[in-house]
Amino acid sequence: MRKHILLVLGTVLFATPAFAHSGKAVYEQTCFSCHAKGVMNAPKLGDKEAWAPRIAEGKPTLMNHADYGFKSMPPHGGNDDLSEQDISAAIDYMVEQAGGYPDKK
Ligand code: HEC
Asked: Which residue among 35, 38, 61, 104 has the highest number of C-beta atoms inside a 10 angstrom radius?
């Protein structure tokens, strides 16, 4: 019985990508200030239509734009304390909220 519970728990933990938490945390700390409400036309969290053409550019392009800036999107979302992994996780988090990458259905 106990073993069963542990097994189920283990499955749940493994099914959740390891980056999910920190990506969400980074988003909530930095990215939400523009991406929650669509400030300056930032693609909103969970807005599939706004994200679809951006997701189609591919992760390397999104990463590049988030790292170095893109139009009104400031480099690192304006937070220089964020590492490459933080940025990457935050992008993955926002992409997942908008339906995810096409190859990960
Ligand atoms: C000061 C406001 C602001 C903050 C903070 C911000 N963004 Fe953005 N972001 C924007 C805007 C505006 C755009 C849309 C740029 C455009 O296409 O005109 C954008 C677009 C993007 C895109 C899509 C780029 C593309 O190629 O279409 C990604 C990815 C992104 N942001 C990631 C992030 C991440 C990750 C963070 C947090 C670390 C963040 N942003 C924080 C304003 C912001």
From this structure: 35
Please list every protein residue whose CB sits less than 6 Å from any atom of ligand 1.
26, 30-31, 33-35, 39-43, 54, 57, 61-62, 65-66, 70-74, 77-78, 82, 87, 90-91
C-alpha triplet 23, 25, 28: angle, nearest 5°? 110
- Look at domain 19-104 and name its CATH class: mainly alpha
Tell me the whole-structure pTM to 2 decimals: 0.84
d(CA 17, CA 36): 22
